[in-house]
From TrEMBL:
InterPro entries: OMP_Chaperone_SurA, PPIase_dom_sf, PPIase_PpiC, Trigger_fact/SurA_dom_sf. One of its GO terms (molecular function) is peptidyl-prolyl cis-trans isomerase activity. Residues 154-252 form the PpiC domain. The keyword tRNA-binding does not apply. The keyword Signal applies. This is Parvulin-like PPIase. It holds the Pfam family SurA_N_3. It comes from the Bacteria.
Length: 404
């Protein structure tokens, strides 16, 4: 149904309340996803992507049609403005350059603009038909705020989520799709890209990012249990929850209400030497030992440049380096240093050997956690998300959809 097609022959693959979705529409949206992920996929994965894209296009069509029926049509000017801003801010291109780029990857401005129109239409529908009817009592917020204050010192998580809804009839199919998404992510796929394309949660527009939350804010025992044992960078799923499946990605983790040492800003000097590529192991070891001994004798950053010159080492000064931006192994080593101390030598024969000397450190301020207003906004967003999922299910149920 969704195999190779001649772009000059626009053959319908589905008709949604009379609106035609063609194979070309699917191909061009697929090209956007493949370009975003920058990796080759198997024929089986491509076929699965095509089917998911068709479902997404059907949902977009229903959202656009519903907005029109509610006299909330998104204008072409609004779509063009968002498209131009996206081209400039995310891709660093002019609209004309963006058109050329999209053509080069097998897509088109029309495909991207259709996705934009669907997102704007859906946001407009939710803002009028859902959000005004969502209420969060101040007592609920106070109760959550008190519980969070009591949890100071416990873990706080920055999670990414891909949510796929399921019914008893399609539960196994959705589970299989979710498992294949996990496999693609484990092979290097972009979590943000897959979340934007597949997730049915309201966070899809921001790549599935839930922001910094406490586990109590998930309000789901299954997800709380899983997230509690995750490590930064870990991907878990699919996790069965009421109404479907979730895939969780732990972006980062910190202590609630406590300053995170990794947010410290450091001033560093990198002292490095090169090793002859034809040096024997004994020669390389001798040079590294001498380098290490010379570094140990340096009494602070004030002596670093002169001492390095004596041993033929290079010095590079790096100010305003946030510890969090460095590899994990270096983070741990640097956080143990006092000013004037250096890390153990690291590197290789090919890249050279270096140390990092700590010249200064600005420790982070204590995070007081979310305010009551922030908690209320989050609780409202969660309820809007649940209501939006029901709204979309109703649109699908009432639609007339023909497949070719």
């Amino acid at each position: 149904m969704l195999g190779n097609s001649d772009p000059n022959v626009r053959r319908a693959t589905a008709t949604v309340n009379g609106a035609v979705i063609t194979g070309t529409d699917v191909d061009q949206r697929l090209a956007l996803i493949l370009a975003a992920n920058e990796q080759k996929i198997s024929p089986e994965e491509e076929q699965r992507l095509r089917l998911q894209i068709l479902r997404n296009l059907i949902d977009e069509t229903l959202q656009i049609q519903e907005a029109a029926a509610q006299e909330m049509t998104v204008t072409q000017d609004e779509v063009d403005q968002t498209y131009n801003r996206l081209a400039t801010q995310r891709f660093g291109r002019t609209p004309e350059e963006m058109k050329t780029y999209l053509a080069s990857i097998g897509s088109s401005p029309a495909s991207l603009k259709r996705q934009i129109e669907g997102e704007l239409a859906w946001d407009r529908l939710l803002s009028r038909n859902v959000e005004p009817f969502i209420n969060v009592a101040s007592e609920e917020v106070d109760d959550l705020y008190d519980r969070l204050q009591e949890s100071r010192g416990t873990a706080e998580y920055r999670l990414g989520e891909i949510y796929l809804s399921a019914t008893p009839a399609n539960k196994q199919q959705v589970f299989n799709n979710a498992r294949q998404i996990v496999e693609q992510l484990q092979q290097g796929g972009s979590f943000v890209g897959y979340a934007r394309q597949y997730s049915e949660a309201s966070t899809a527009a921001v790549g599935g990012d839930l922001g910094w939350i406490r586990l109590a804010q998930l309000q789901n025992p299954q997800l709380e249990t899983v997230a509690k044992d995750m490590s930064p960078g870990q991907l878990v799923g699919p996790i069965e929850i009421p109404g479907g499946f979730s895939i969780l990605y732990l972006i980062d983790k910190r202590q609630v209400g406590m300053a995170d040492p990794r947010d410290a800003v450091m001033s560093l000097k990198q002292i490095s030497i090169t090793l002859a590529k034809d040096a024997t192991q004994a020669q390389a070891k001798a040079k590294v030992d001498a380098f290490s001994k010379a570094v140990d004798a340096i009494r602070g950053c004030g002596e670093a440049d002169a001492a390095a010159a004596k041993i033929g080492a290079d010095v590079v000064t790096n100010d305003q380096i946030r510890v969090r931006s460095l590899p994990d192994a270096l983070q741990q080593a640097l956080l143990k240093l006092n000013v004037g101390e250096a890390t153990p030598p690291f590197g290789s024969v090919e890249e050279g050997v270096r140390v990092l000397m700590l010249c200064g450190r600005d420790d982070p301020q204590v995070d007081s956690g979310p305010t009551r207003d922030q908690l209320m906004n989050q609780m409202e967003n969660e309820r809007v998300n649940r209501r939006a999922q029901r709204y979309l299910r109703d649109l699908r149920r009432d639609a007339v959809i023909d497949y070719n």
